[in-house]
Amino acid sequence: MTDIATPTPSGTAAAFADDAYIPPRGFWNATIRFMRRQPVGMVGIVLVAIFGLAGIFADWITPYNPTANDFSAMTEAPSWAHWLGTDQLGRDILSRILFGARTAFLVGLTSALVGGLSGLVLGVGSAYFGGRIDLFLQRILDIVMSFPLIIMALAVVSIFGTGVQNVIIAITIPLIPRCARVVRSSALAIREIPYVDAARALGYGHSRIILAHMVPNVVAPFLVILTAFVGQAILAEAALSYLGLGVQEPVAAWGLMLQGGAEEYASTAPWIAIFPGLAIMLTVFGINLFGDALRDVLDPKMRER
Amino acid sequence: MHRYIVSRLLLVIPTLLGAAALVFILMRLIPGDICLVRLGSGGTSFSTQALNACHAEIGIDKPWLVQFGQFVWGLARGDFGLSMWSGKPVVQEIATRFPVSLEVALIATIIAIAIAIPLGTISALKQNTWIDLAVRSFSIAGIATPAFWLGIISILLVLDLTQAISGHPWMPSIDYVPIWKDPIRNLSIVMLPAITVGYRYAAVSMRMTRSAMLEVLREDYIRTARAKGLMEKIVINRHALKNALLPVVTVIGIEFAFLIGGLVVTEQVFNLNGIGRLMVLSVQNQDYTMTQALVMLVVTIAVLTNLAVDLLYAWLDPRIRLR
Amino acid sequence: MRRTYWTAGSMAALVAALALPALADETPKRGGTLTYMIPADAPPSFDGHREETYATIHSVAPFYSLLIRANPMNPGDSSDLVCDLCTEMPKPTDDGKTYTFKIRQGVKFHNGDPLTAEDVAASWNEIVFPPQGVLSVRQGNFTMIDKIEATDPTTVVIHLKFATDAFLPALADPYAFIYQKKQLDQDPHWYEKNVNGSGPFKFVDYEAGQSIVGERNPDYFHKGLPYLDGFKGVYADKQVTRVEAIRSDRAAIEFRGFPPTVRDELKDALGDRLAVQESDWNCGGILTINHKRKPFDDVRVRRALTLAIDRWGTAPELSKIAIVKTVGGVVYPGSPLAATKEELEQLAGYWPDIEKSRAEARRLLQEAGAEGLTFELNNRTVDQPYKYYGIWAVDQWNKIGLHVTQKVLPTGPWFQALRDANFAVSTEGNCQNVVNPLADVAKYLPHTASSSNYGNFEDDTEVDIYNKMLRETDKAKQRALMRQFETRVLSDEVHSIYLLWWRRIVPYQSYVKGWKIGPSHYVNQDLGTVWLDR
């Protein structure tokens, strides 16, 4: 699905299924090695950090209150007083973008984490226990995955109302089966390897086997898909807010800034539409760069070179 | 293999039934109903008698189980019922809107394939050079850009450019004509949305192509072919591409399936009378029959596409084929 | 610095000033097709008797005739009602309780059948006394009608239960299409999907979500009309699309209304090629308070809510970006029954000194023990002007120390919340068609008297005043009663909070002539007098 976004992992599950994962020695070594070998990834991290920190410290660094209407300064072009201009209610766009970073990351990280972790549990569980549990879970996940996202989001919002929590719910639900699918394929590869059966024969409990053997193997694709999720969740929030289903006025959120007013004023006051869109693009761009670099690092085949 | 095909086909049924149950319940959990939407939009008064008459007319006063039974029985017969909003057959309403979405999806796919495969291949061949970096940035930008924002900006650019050049702002025709009636007008309506959607589609496919090509190029048989002295072009086209294309085709296929149901925001931006917009409207109007039918349509397409992909992989995987 | 403010009087003057030159100045040209935008996706049905959305009117009004209607040359004056199918406006007899209408002869439906008084009576009987299973949405406007009958093929007599000024404007209901009796007897639901009228245009084609097309009716009974060869209404529920269509001349006009920024944008882009008509709108935004939800059962809290809102100060700013403008009470500002500025300033929430007003609000909240109250404002997911009302109201209430957030819902759930009394305060709209203050203010009566009120309160005094006013024929006494009614509803008991009256702005390609704006986007839409100057 293109606009209400589906994360399509950039490598197939097959790319990770074959080799068993060997964790690198020491976290710091890995980080330094990452920095040196993946300059592009560093660019990504820097971009994400800029927006992330902006969101965290927004209260202190914004020049104006993001929700204060100022009818004497409606739709003003960028100027020294308002670096990025004002919108039709006179609100400073720079301030709204900085606070919007907070909303974006809140929604993005929460949806990605909740969706990802749920998907991880379901995927690994499904692969490990196999049999009827696997069949049943797969059907449920199939249903959710093929269900049109927009109808699900519209229904959630109509039932529970708009607002940040409900947007998070609406975005998290479709992420779960997508994560579960990828995790399950990786986990299945481990499942086939004899040492799981051997471990069971030796009397090891389910949780020990899962945690010690299966989960480490799926961590790599899981982390990659998690970063992809954050980006897709931010895009999804933007799309939902554009349709009027996301966070509501007067909360500052990038997608909301692109709704209604931005289009109406696009020819007379284009800055209202341009800057929030750029913010979204740069943030997701950075997240994707980081995700790519992460995948390159974690892909065992590449690491061997 | 036959066992596999049959078992996969059988598994489709519970998925479809589950989706039917999900949409049925989800819609009825939304407070209010279509009669309220119809009667209530302007603030004028209406009597409870009128409301009850409306309910009875549409059939939502019956118990849920009865309604669900009617729905599923209708599905089995291929009868999707009448739209609660307009009273016309659901199939007819969908049929008038489907061509637009399909056309946008198809043209977007063509654009995507035309861009993705060559660029993805070049990027893989010239890995880690500046060409690779440029292509990768281009593709990541495509994934990162909100499609609707791109749409808004592009409509405005066209309006402003045409106004600047000719003094008369131009925008595509506002009513849709099918391609066989007036191809130029049709393409002028569909081109911009298709490009907007196609960009992201191309971006995803480009990355897949690059990734798959990289893997294939590492394979031994490629090294052998090169060592044999074969021309690079033949190595790429005859050996590498052929094998790399499988995952690429998979991704293109899956994305296409989601595209049909996912054009919502694009259709809003470009005001296209397509399936995506119909979905939004039918949920907002709380038109149960229409929403149910649309969901079943989209789910069926998605499920069948997944099935086709699975079967394709199964056929290629000797472990399963020879069972 | 307080901006100058529009009062009812200057409003009327403005509307008059913006009126188009009389048609006599230019000779209408025949021919051409008018393409216009309809701000909706699709009408739920074509049957005007059962729908109350402008989508239905803008789609099919050109195909139908009415018994009486607002004067197409002067729709701004709601006392100027003229005959469409009748021959002349009757004088009421029997102490104002009986109206005898003579129906034109020689009128034909589009299918060739003649139109007689029987058809008129049957259509009106369906509206006022709908049979079982038939929906008539505005039935409540006609409670004064006792009987409708066709005494002979050219005469329709309507008997009222009591004489009232509210009758004729109600009768000019633009949704009251005259249907064929034969058809209604056979299948009253036929008109939902089919068209057979006696209007200036004949139905040609309809594509759901796309467009509706009509062509000239050569047998139209108003000789010489219509000027147009045909029309095409294109559906687009997104404002930007409609604006761009007009800007690039894909369409000439949209008949609902745009916010002022659109007018300015189009003026910049098109210059002389653009014409604009503006009018006050018989639509307004109100806040409904759920009297059963504590602490809103306390009149002091309700009064605090209305006192906090700075109408005079904010309206000029809001009017630049939203389709709102005039500060008024419950009566349409252009009507003689409307309050003057001085009278308004006596009401709570309309005091000229906002600081004093807000101080009083805080004092009342303290007295009622409701300081720092937290609640949700229910709102609809509709941009203009609901989104702006919501932002504005929340902002104003936060200024007196309340903590208000918005709960925004799509139409169905929003309505359900109203009906289930599952809300604290909710935005609502009150859109009526022909200006008929006596009927239009019925919305503020308690639910037992007006089924469209969701405030959950009882108030016999209010109902008393209303009933007296409805039956009062002396204009001065009527006005005095209206002041009493308004004061009780908005200031003493604060059953409803009136926000702002809407403003209708219609920018269009200047080659469109013969159409005059009025206070209602439901009225004057049959396009019979429209012509194209090119």
Summarize the structure in short:
With 323 residues, chain B is mostly helical.
Lay out the secondary structure.
The complex is a heterotrimer of chains A (305), B (323) and C (534).
Chain A lengths: L13 H4 L9 H11 L1 H18 L1 H4 L31 H37 L1 H16 L2 H12 L3 H29 L1 H8 L4 H37 L11 H4 L3 H4 L6 H28 L1 H5 L1
Helix pairs in contact in A: 3-5, 3-13, 5-6, 5-8, 5-10, 6-8, 7-8, 8-10, 10-13
Chain B lengths: L1 H28 L4 H7 L7 H11 L5 H14 L12 H36 L4 H15 L2 H20 L16 H35 L2 H8 L4 H31 L1 H7 L4 H10 L3 H29 L1 H4 L2
Helix pairs in contact in B: 1-13, 5-6, 5-8, 5-10, 6-8, 7-8, 7-11, 8-10, 9-10, 10-13, 11-12, 12-13
Chain C lengths: L7 H10 L15 E6 L15 H7 L7 E3 L10 E3 L14 E5 L14 H12 L16 E8 L2 E6 L6 H5 L9 H6 L3 H4 L7 E7 L3 E6 L13 E6 L3 H9 L5 E2 L5 H11 L3 E16 L9 H9 L3 H11 L2 E3 L14 H4 L9 H15 L5 E7 L2 H16 L4 E7 L1 H9 L5 E7 L5 H4 L19 H12 L3 H18 L3 E14 L2 E2 L17 E2 L2
Parallel strand pairs in C: 1-9, 1-10, 13-14, 13-15
Antiparallel strand pairs in C: 2-3, 4-6, 5-6, 7-8, 8-9, 11-15, 11-16, 12-16, 17-18
Model description:
- The complex is a heterotrimer of chains A (305), B (323) and C (534).
- Chain A has 305 residues and is an all-alpha fold.
- Chain A is built from 14 helices and no strands.
- The longest helix of chain A is centred in the middle third of the chain and has 37 residues, at 93-129.
- Chain A is elongated and about 75 Å long.
- With 323 residues, chain B is mostly helical.
- Chain B has 14 helices and no strands.
- Chain B has helices at 2-29, 34-40, 48-58, 64-77, 90-125, 130-144, 147-166, 183-217, 220-227, 232-262, 264-270, 275-284, 288-316, 318-321.
- In chain B, helix 7 runs parallel beside helix 11, helix 8 packs across helix 10 (232-262) and helix 12 crosses helix 13.
- The longest helix of chain B has 36 residues, at 90-125.
- The radius of gyration of chain B is 25 Å and the shape is flat.
- The relative contact order of chain B is 0.15.
- The mean pLDDT of chain B is 82.
- Chain C has helices spanning 8-17, 54-60, 117-128, 167-171, 181-186, 190-193, 239-247, 260-270, 299-307, 311-321, 341-344, 354-368, 383-398, 411-419, 437-440, 460-471, 475-492; strands at residues 33-38, 68-70, 81-83, 98-102, 145-152, 155-160, 201-207, 211-216, 230-235, 253-254, 274-289, 324-326, 374-380, 403-409, 425-431, 496-509, 512-513, 531-532.
- In chain C, helix 9 (299-307) runs antiparallel to helix 12 (354-368) and helix 16 (460-471) runs antiparallel to helix 17.
- The longest helix of chain C is centred in the last third of the chain and has 18 residues, at 475-492.
- At the A-B interface, helix 6, helix 7, helix 10 and helix 13 of A face helix 1, helix 6, helix 7, helix 8 and helix 10 of B.
